Amino acid sequence: MMRSMYSAVSGLKTHQTKMDVIGNNIANVNTVAFKSSSVTFSDLLYQTTSNASGANATTGVGGVNAKQIGLGATTASTKVNITSSGAAETTGDGLDIRLSDANTTNFFIVNNGSENLFTRSGSFYIDGSGNLCMTSTGYNVMGWQVDPTTGEIQKDTVSALRVMKQENLTSAPEATTNGTVSGILDKNDSDVTSEAGKIMTLNFYDDLGYQYTAKFAIRAVNKDQCEYTVELASLLDSNGTDIIANFTDAQKASLFGNQTTSNSTYTLPTSATGLSSGDCYYDTGASTYNIVLSNGTTAALTPDNATNPTSFTYTDENGAQQTVTPQDVFGFTALEWQNIQNSATTNVTGTMNGATYTIASPTVNYTLKFNTADGTFDYVNMSGQSKATLNLSSSGLFTNGNFKDISIDFSTCLNQNNGGKSTIGADSGDLDGTTGKGKKLGAMIGLSVDTSGKIYGTYDNGNTTLLGQIATAQFANASGLEKVGDNCYTTTLNSGDFDGIGVDISADGSKMTTGELEMSNVDLSTEFTQMIITQRGFQANSRVITTSDTLLEELVNLKR
């Protein structure tokens, strides 16, 4: 009778233990990555009142089983349901990561400052030192670093992932090495036929990330034959200063284009006959330049230089001294006069003797030719050539040494009717839009994690840089891990040790999913069912104790 009471007490204890586990499961129903536990019972050592006997062939009596009385129940084990994953909860946070593996046997590796622990809770953030940490505890997330030589992940002993180091906050600039000209060049565009030409700009970077602008002028030479010229008009720095303004034609030719010379011949009238006020002529008899005054008389023009004058003076009808330019006298165009004035740098030479004079005007440009049949690109500079080079580096004209030569591809531009409006323009980068585009110094604007746990920094110059990789740990017996609180586990003799290196989660086809968290795998319906069963068991054991007490009371009463 006492045995029954003690057995019932052990039953109460075991059912209380199971209720404790159920209560803990329900309490953590919304705990991220919590793994539910279950309890199993076992019976206690039995008291044998009679041993078993075998059959007796002589007497013909059969064997008798042993007589045993159990001494109650005890907790056999508390098993963690670790291989069952919880539901996925979408958070939208790029640093919330869910381990998507078939058997839920992968664990994040975190460090509390003294030892490595393991968790499936992937709620992370970047702390003030730039480390990737657990949101709830601040433990450092462990992984592999980037080899500074190769730029690839070095899968060595795991260490804290400091993804926002000072050197990672910026991305190095890149000098532009390619450009592409595209769009339509319309021969009826007034800009194309003008003296200034159709201006096309190309923005580019040097090695330090400073931006420059190259301006090209496209002019019609023989538009009916689809022939044009491309000239480097200016090269502006970030302050708008033209850094080639004082370059000679030879220097400009070494930068872009070929230098050619064209001669222009002009003839002045030799008498005042038929001329109007302000018109000039050359008196061959007197060998003088003259101007017609408003009263119909003429006045001699006195040049400041006999061969290449920069001004002429004369006395007008009122006796006042006046000055005119060679442009006024000879009828130069503005561009021709500019060339003459800049003869020291442009190597313009001219002969101005008498009524006939010649100006030799050097130009620096490339020939741009299109197919006359369909307006498609033919060549630039020479037959079979589709690219022209802006020789910023190889020319040796710049002392900073930060430029790269830029190869400019003209092959996609067209010479077709577009209603008199040209859309031709230049962009940095090759035909693919990215190669050789060049970039400014980039500032980090975000972090991202791919499915294999690789962490990338993104920058405002378009660069993406690999910063590290989150490692995971796998165990032969994940259920053997020991819970230590804060959603973390530690190794035991039965779980197997951690090798200090970890594994790439993608090695077995598993992955990491960002913007999601793994929730608890607690099944409330199961827990409530178990709670009812446990309650009934507890009540039954209580009744055994009550009944045993009643029987003992009856025995005491019999003694009376």
Structure, described:
Helices cover 16% and strands 36% of the residues. By secondary structure, it is an alpha+beta fold. It folds into three domains: 2-52 and 63-81 and 522-559, no CATH class; 88-171 and 442-518, no CATH class; 178-428, no CATH class. Strands 7, 8, 11, 12, 13, 30, 31, 32, 33, 34 and 35 form an eleven-stranded antiparallel beta sheet that branches. Helix 1 (2-27) packs antiparallel against helix 7 (524-559). The radius of gyration is 47 Å and the shape is rod-shaped.
List the helices and strands and how they pair.
Elements: H1 2-27, E1 37-43, E2 47-50, E3 67-69, E4 73-80, E5 88-90, E6 97-100, E7 106-111, E8 116-119, E9 124-126, E10 132-134, E11 140-146, E12 153-160, E13 170-171, E14 178-182, H2 190-193, E15 198-205, E16 211-222, E17 227-236, H3 249-255, E18 258-267, E19 280-283, E20 288-292, E21 298-303, E22 312-315, E23 321-324, H4 326-330, H5 334-341, H6 343-346, E24 349-353, E25 356-370, E26 377-380, E27 387-390, E28 406-409, E29 425-428, E30 442-449, E31 454-459, E32 464-470, E33 472-474, E34 482-485, E35 488-490, E36 511-514, E37 516-518, H7 524-559
Parallel strand pairs: 14-28
Antiparallel strand pairs: 1-4, 2-3, 5-37, 6-36, 7-8, 7-11, 7-33, 8-35, 9-10, 11-12, 11-32, 13-30, 14-29, 15-16, 16-17, 17-25, 18-25, 19-20, 20-21, 21-22, 22-23, 24-25, 25-26, 27-28, 30-31, 31-32, 34-35
Helix pairs in contact: 1-7
Concise synopsis of the structure shown:
The chain has 560 residues and is α+β, with helices and mostly antiparallel strands.
